[in-house]
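Hi U.,

Before I forget, here's the chain from the pilot set. I'm dumping it here mostly so it's searchable later in email.
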Amino acid sequence: MSNRSCILLVDDHPLMRRGIVELLASTDDFEVVAEASSGREAIKVACQLRPEMILLDQHMPGGLSGLQVLDELRQLALPIQAVILTAQLNRNEFLSALQLGVAGYILKDADPEMLLAHLRRCRHGEIALSEEMVALLAHPDESQSAPSAELLSTLTPREGQTLALIAQGLSNKEIAREIGISDSTVKVYVKSLLSKLNMRSRLELAVWVYKSTGMNPKDS
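Structure:
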């Protein structure tokens, strides 16, 4: 039985799709089970196949954008990890993607090996975030206030410890080993953090820590 993660690939450029399909086929980790060239087609295929992951182009001419597709998938409550591919550094789009629970945000000009590394991190429940996106966070929009650090006071010591380790990019298994607890207990803490801080993904948690404290989400 294959241990590969099933991926729905969405991009309006056939050449881009072919390159990514060939790249992922060269690994033992991923399998592209379907392709779509538009947002509407992506939603239809996702509902039919329910893949584990969707690799989604942010900017597709006409129809739905990647963020709009992600929004509809979330409304349908499909348990699919979403990774956005983008050719542009746009902070507002990035923050909107975080609010929609995106699992990763990657630039299209990333090296093939870097793309694979990001997808593997996402597959293992870690943060998949291009270095350029981290740098973008270092220049906050002055018109938007950062989340209040006072929310940290509502967390238990274990939740605070878990949050700090998530911000360092650790997976649940790595956090469990670091703290000395079970994987299932870490999952409980992560669920509690998302609920208390009103967030949808580990990536959004990590970025919240960065905005509140200045910690780089990729620091270890």
